[in-house]
């Protein structure tokens, strides 16, 4: 049995989130429809190699949950206006999603989408996953921003989970 086949559902979802952030970044830069990006990733990138040769054996890489990946990318694309409105409301005064770096914007959009549409994923898991993802791309300030923004949005959308009644 390979490492790929031993990956837990949680690990496969984490890998899907990371791929979705990259796909959302690519979609924004290329202006391609979400369905095209999902198809490209499914055909060429979700095998763990990103379409290139790596020194890491393919068996050691986690196969992302492809359905979850597609839901994230297409869900963000379909609800972009609503997501950006929520994010803008959670950012400090004078800041908007358009002022944020593209990867950071992709992280916040994906996390906000999960908080809205994926009630099967606990709020604390969503926030932790996207803060961890932010650490993969940024140093200290951006992960703190992701934590603060997603926490504010989570408290608004899921007050029961946030301990607010």
From TrEMBL:
Family the UniProt entry places it in: Belongs to the NusB family.
Superkingdom of the source species: Bacteria
Pfam families the UniProt entry points to: NusB
PANTHER family: ANTITERMINATION NUSB DOMAIN-CONTAINING PROTEIN, N UTILIZATION SUBSTANCE PROTEIN B-RELATED
Function: Involved in transcription antitermination. Required for transcription of ribosomal RNA (rRNA) genes. Binds specifically to the boxA antiterminator sequence of the ribosomal RNA (rrn) operons.
Keywords: RNA-binding, Transcription, Transcription antitermination, Transcription regulation
GO molecular function, one term: RNA binding
NCBIfam families: nusB
Record GO biological process: DNA-templated transcription termination; transcription antitermination
Domain NusB/RsmB/TIM44 span(s) in chain numbering: 15-154
Record Gene3D superfamilies: NusB-like
Name of the protein this chain belongs to: Transcription antitermination protein NusB
Gene designation per UniProt: nusB
GO annotations of cellular component type: cytosol
